[in-house]
Automatic annotation (TrEMBL):
Protein name, UniProt field: Starvation-inducible DNA-binding protein
Gene3D superfamilies registered for this protein in UniProt: 1.20.1260.10
Sorted UniProt keywords: DNA-binding
Listed PANTHER family: DNA PROTECTION DURING STARVATION PROTEIN, GENERAL STRESS PROTEIN 20U
CDD domains for this protein: DPS
InterPro entries linked to this entry: DPS_DNA-bd, DPS_DNA-bd_CS, Ferritin-like, Ferritin-like_SF, Ferritin_DPS_dom
Domain Ferritin/DPS per the UniProt entry, residue ranges: 18-154
Secretion signal, residue range per the UniProt entry: none
Keyword DNA-binding: yes
Molecular-function annotations in GO: DNA binding; ferric iron binding; oxidoreductase activity, acting on metal ions
Similarity field: Belongs to the Dps family.
Length: 157
């Protein structure tokens, strides 16, 4: 394979890719959590939450692919194991099956954490003049902000 020459130096590409790895790990962890809750939600809000969680995990499944491919575009290997994701993610794994209301709270916090991770990656991408990563991360941030809002609205009494 030929050497990469996209106008971003190696050090900046690696710094941006490191942030994207954290974003990938957070997104994948949130995907797994959302899928788990989709399968296991119960109670009066079952149908609404079951369908909402399905929309969310399907969107996240596409997102993790986009993020991993951006890492590869920067000529850096993308993480792809549970172990790597666990080490990189700032989202705590949920090992129990909480009540539906708690699921909504946990997922809200997860989406908000992804927004914070996006903000960190955005700074590195802007500093590197990496507009492709800026666009990807800005779009991801918008999706997660909106999803967190929708989840918060679901839990309002």
């Amino acid at each position: 394979m030929t050497k990469i020459d996209i106008g971003i130096n190696e050090q900046d590409r690696e710094k941006v890719a490191d942030g994207l790895k954290r974003l990938l790990a957070d997104s994948y962890t949130l995907y797994l959590q959302t899928h788990n809750f989709h399968w296991n939600v119960t109670g009066p809000l079952f149908r609404e939450l079951h369908l909402m969680f399905e929309e969310h995990y399907q969107e996240l499944a596409e997102a993790v692919d986009d993020i991993a491919e951006r890492i590869r575009t920067l000529d850096v290997e993308a993480p792809g194991t549970y172990k790597a994701f666990a080490e990189l993610s700032s989202i705590k794994e949920e090992t129990s099956i909480p009540a539906a209301e708690k699921m909504v709270e946990i997922l809200t916090q997860g989406h908000e954490q992804v927004v914070k991770t996006c903000r960190d990656v955005l700074k590195a991408a802007q500093a590197a003049d990496d507009e492709s990563t800026v666009a990807l991360v800005s779009d991801r941030m918008s999706v997660h902000e909106k999803t967190a809002w929708m989840l918060r609205a679901t839990s309002k009494k």
